[in-house]
Amino acid sequence: MNWYDKYLYNFTIAIKEFKFCSKKSKMMKLAYSSRNHAIEFNDVDKKDGYVCKVQLTDCKNGVILTASFISGIYAFNLFKEVWNYPSNEKKRAIKTYNRCINVIEDLKGDYEDEDMAGPTLQGLAREALRYVDIDRKKPTNNRSLEAAKYLDGEGDYANNLYGNRLPVTTININNSGVVNIDNK
Hints:
The chain is α+β, with helices and mostly antiparallel strands and 184 residues long. It has a domain at 30-138. The chain is built from five helices and six strands, in the order αββββααααββ. The strands form two sheets. A four-stranded antiparallel β-sheet has the order 1-2-3-4, with helices on one face. Strands 5-6 form a two-stranded antiparallel sheet. α2 runs antiparallel to α3. The relative contact order is 0.10. Residues 12-22 have low confidence and may be disordered.
């Protein structure tokens, strides 16, 4: 007999009786209701896709609405917006939830129709969701960023990338069939 068998042989097991009651015990509710919606964005390069998750959660402290743009492969958070509502404004939160879904569905159509590059989705999402119930957005600790929420941004991703240096290509075709391409 080894030391472990001796230990088990000398070890006494105490048995305690548990009583189960048939009454339902009160459980603590963390969320009273929740709504989720996921929208998938397909990338042009087929190397990375993005998912937007819109979630509405009603809890005892109020109603929270989040819209998160997440990379499908690398799982990093591309962009996130948060709206906070008091408990008595649930209808307004549901209305904003439906509006967010409609805005993001329109953004998806524009993004996929124009074959945009993946990283441009962040700027497009920020501009699309900028004025959606702006007074209920979660405030930041930076005053300049808080003031910038009310300023107009640039919705065209090409101007964001190139600024005023956007390349212009002019194609001239003569009657003789000569093609001249000018890049400025």
